[in-house]
Specification:
Length: 298
C-alpha cells in the first residue's frame, strides 16, 4: 500500500541552556502523539537538539558543546528506542562533528531504529564573519562546512525518500537532485528567523517565501514534502512556524497553527506523485538536459 500517515513534529524554542535530555523528552512526547494519530514517520526540525547557536559569536568551548560526535548517543538513544518500540521512522536534524569537520546534518531512521540515510546541508545561508551592527547573527558559514555527501536518496518503507535542510528548500537544484533520482517524498527541517536581512520589506515576506519555496519545490518535482520548523521566540530571535505537508500537486495537506511544539499529520498517497510524473513532469519525455549545461557549469 502506497499510503501512510506522515507526521511533522514542529518544535518551539530551545534555550541556550537546555539539556539534550530535556529536548529529547519533548521529542518523545511529540513522537508518541504522532504515533497515537497513526503516523508511520515523523519529521523533526533542523538542529533539533540545541538552540539555533549560529545566531551568536561563540567561544570555541561553547561552540563545540552544540555538536554531536556520534549518532545515536547517550542523549538520543531514548528517542531511537521509543521510535523503534512504536515502530515509527523519523528525520532528525543536528550539528555534527566528524574527524574535525563540522556539518549541519540530518538523518532518516527506519522503524527499527536504524539510520538509513544521512545528509549534510549543502546551502549555508548568511556569512562567516559577523555583520557589524547586528545583535543576532546568521553565522552558519562560520560554524559549518558545505555538505560532502551529495543529495542521497533511499528506497524506504516511506517511499523513495530524500532529505534537505532549511536553506536548501529555496534552491530548485536541491529538489531536482532528489527527483532526478526518483524521490517521491522529501523531509526538511528548518530554523527560519524573521530578521534575516534587516530589510523590512524582505523580512515581512519570510513566511510567504517559506510557503512559496515548499509548494514550488513539491509541484515542480512531483514530490510530497514534510517540512518541520523549530520556531517561536528562541533567545530573542523570532523564528517562523508554518510547518507543513505539501502534496505533489503543490496543495498544502496540513499546516501548523502555532509557533510551539505541535504535531501535524496527513494521510499521504505516494501514487499521487506518479500521476504528475506520468504527465506534466514526465522527465524522460519533456526535459532537455543538453540545453541546461549552464546550471552545472556556472
Ligand atoms: N535559515 C534560513 C532559511 O533559509 C533565511 C535563512 C531566513 C533565509 C529568512 C531567508 C529568509 O530558511 C536557515 N537555517 O537556513
Amino acid at each position: 500500500d502506497r499510503r501512510y500517515v506522515l507526521a511533522v513534529a514542529q518544535m518551539g524554542p530551545i534555550a541556550r541552556s537546555d539539556s539534550r535530555a530535556a529536548v529529547v523528552a519533548r521529542q518523545i512526547e511529540l513522537l508518541r502523539e504522532a504515533h497515537a494519530r497513526g503516523a508511520a514517520f515523523v519529521v523533526f526540525p533542523e538542529l533539533a537538539l540545541t538552540t539555533f547557536f549560529p545566531r551568536w559569536i561563540l567561544g570555541e568551548d561553547e561552540r563545540q558543546s552544540f555538536y554531536e560526535t556520534e549518532m545515536p548517543n547517550a542523549d538520543t538513544a531514548p528517542l531511537f528506542a521509543e521510535a523503534a518500540r512504536l515502530g515509527v521512522g523519523f528525520y532528525l536534524g543536528y550539528a555534527e562533528i566528524e574527524a574535525g569537520h563540522f556539518f549541519n546534518t540530518a538523518i532518516v531512521v527506519d522503524r527499527a531504529g536504524k539510520i538509513i540515510l544521512k545528509y549534510r546541508k549543502v546551502h549555508l545561508p548568511g556569512t562567516a564573519e559577523p555583520i557589524p551592527g547586528r545583535t543576532l547573527h546568521h553565522l552558519e558559514k562560520r560554524y559549518f562546512e558545505p555538505g560532502n555527501l551529495g543529495f542521497p536518496v533511499a528506497r524506504t518503507d516511506y517511499g523513495i525518500a530524500g532529505a534537505l535542510i532549511c536553506n536548501d528548500r529555496r534552491w530548485p537544484e536541491a529538489y531536482r537532485m532528489l527527483s532526478l533520482q526518483g524521490a517521491e517524498v522529501g523531509f526538511i527541517g528548518y530554523n527560519t528567523p524573521d530578521d534575516h536581512t534587516g530589510d523590512f520589506d524582505f523580512d515581512n515576506l519570510t513566511s510567504f517565501h517559506n510557503q512559496l519555496s515548499l509548494q514550488a519545490g513539491a509541484y515542480q518535482n512531483s514530490m510530497w514534502l514534510g517540512a518541520a520548523a523549530k520556531c517561536g521566540n528562541e533567545e530573542g530571535s523570532r523564528m517562523i512556524g508554518d510547518s507543513m505537508i505539501v502534496a505533489p500537486s503543490g496543495q498544502i495537506a496540513a499546516q501548523a497553527l502555532t509557533t510551539g511544539d505541535e504535531v501535524i499529520t496527513a494521510r499521504i498517497d505516494l501514487d499521487m506523485a506518479s500521476l504528475y510524473r506520468r504527465t506534466i513532469f514526465d522527465f524522460a519525455r519533456h526535459r532537455e538536459p543538453e540545453q541546461y549545461h549552464l546550471i552545472t557549469t556556472r
